[in-house]
Amino acid sequence: MDNPVFHSTSSEKPKLLTISFKDDPQGSLGAQLINCDKGEPFEMFSPGFAQIGRLLEGATVARKCGVNVGDCIVAVNGSGYRRFAADFKEEELENLSGDSHMSNDNNVFSAGTGEAYLALLAKIKFIKSMGDPPLALCLERYGWDAKINSWPRFLEARDGDVPQAMKMMQEHEQWKTGIFPIDLTRDGVQEVLRLKAVAEIDLDVMETRIPTVYVNFSKLQSVDSISPDDVCKAFIIFTEMMLSRGKDPRNPKANQFIDLSGVTISSGFRVDMLKKIYNIFEPNYPETLQKMVMYPVSTMLAKTARTLLNFVNEKTQRKFVITNSLAVVCEELGWDQREVEACGGVTEFMHKHEKAGSELILE
Questions:
Q1: Per-residue model confidence (pLDDT) at position 3
Q2: 147 burial class (0-12, 13-18, 19+ CB within 10 angstroms)?
Q3: Residue 345: what are its φ and ψ, rounded to 5°?
Q4: Taking a C-beta distance cutoff of 8 angstroms, is the pair 341, 326 a contact?
């Protein structure tokens, strides 16, 4: 690795995409649009008034042009329909359409609530009905942690309280500036990666299952050279990689699996490590946790764990599964129990389905 640092997998810079109807003037766009012009708080950071909510099946124009869920329409045949001015010059951005790219004037369209979205649709229908020149839609694609996609999650995490959500997002931006890039040459981080004490389990053959961060708690507690800070950095790296691969940047999800094999009350339950991870994850990756599963956990350890984990907010606690049943683990995470047992256990299952991480290990 030429530059041994890890950068965040999402930024505020969009990528540009043009949907051209040149080869199929009367073709169907093949996408369900989200109206982002209803005056709702979640729309605040959307640069346009329509976002791709769902792709329809079939050989549609959207699929042929590489449109993704979450892409935002900002112009029609070069005429801008923006909520606010662009933050970047076009030449600074990655163009996904090659020679099919169409520049636009980045015009800010001012109208009453609901009127901009209707004007956008009317413009699309008019140009399509004319047939010449063919319809061309200019879209911007933003990462999962760009404000357009992350703001609704911050808003949900604070139960719709705009000032509190704004404060939370601003604090996240400050944290992000301070934590990235992560230095991969740190001995502790490298030790976590080499031991596979934090890794990823990914069996998404059909690209429908939610990936899982795997944490081997026993390994983390047994190595003195590994600090909670090193564990958190490894955890952040895997979380960022997994969330960036989500099919919907508005709603990226990840599971967390805490392997407590060999961990007992007498051996010491490092709740401080879990607390540090939680204090990073909860305010900086809100509404991205699907499930956190802790296994295997005896009845006694389960009681202790629930008592010690009282620092976790009630909403997140509802996503916790603390169990001694492999069947429950497999049901919650979508794993095949027979395969897990055939592998010899969850640790061996993790090694079989480990994805990413090896390229981060420095020789």
A1: 66
A2: middle
A3: 135, 175
A4: yes
Cβ atoms of 319 and 288 closer than 8 Å: no
Runs of H (alpha helix) within 182-295? 187-195, 217-222, 228-244, 271-284
Omega before 296 within 30 of 0, i.e. cis: yes
pLDDT for the residue numbered 101:
93
Return phi, psi of residue 139, to 5°.
Answer: -120, 155
Whole-angstrom Cα distance, residue 190 to residue 358?
Answer: 11
DSSP secondary-structure letter at 308? Answer: H
187: how many CB neighbours lie within 10 A of its CB?
Answer: 11
Contact by Cβ (8 Å): 57, 82 = no
Q: Is the peptide bond before 41 cis (omega within 30 degrees of 0)?
A: no
Before 181, cis peptide (omega within 30)?
yes
DSSP 318: T
Question: What pTM was estimated for this model as a whole?
Answer: 0.92
Structure tokens at 204: 């998404």
CA 187 – CA 191 distance, rounded (Å): 6
Res 120 pLDDT > 60 = yes
Q: Is 83 helix (H, G, I), strand (E, B) or coil?
A: coil
80: helix, strand or coil: strand
Asked if 280 contacts 235 with a C-beta cutoff of 8 angstroms, the reply is: yes
- Cα separation, 177 vs 172, in Å, equals 9
Q: Measured between alpha carbons, how far is residue 53 from residues 72, 85, 251 in Å? A: 10, 23, 11
Contact 16, 138 (CB under 8 A): yes
Q: How many CA atoms lie within 13 A of 137 on its CB side?
A: 28
- Quote the CA–CA distance of 43 and 111 in Å, as a whole number: 15
Count, residues in the chain: 363
CA-based Rg of the chain, rounded to a whole angstrom? Answer: 23
Round to whole Å and give the CA distance between 308 and 310.
6
Positive or negative: CA dihedral 167, 53, 55, 24: negative
What is the structure's pLDDT at 328?
95
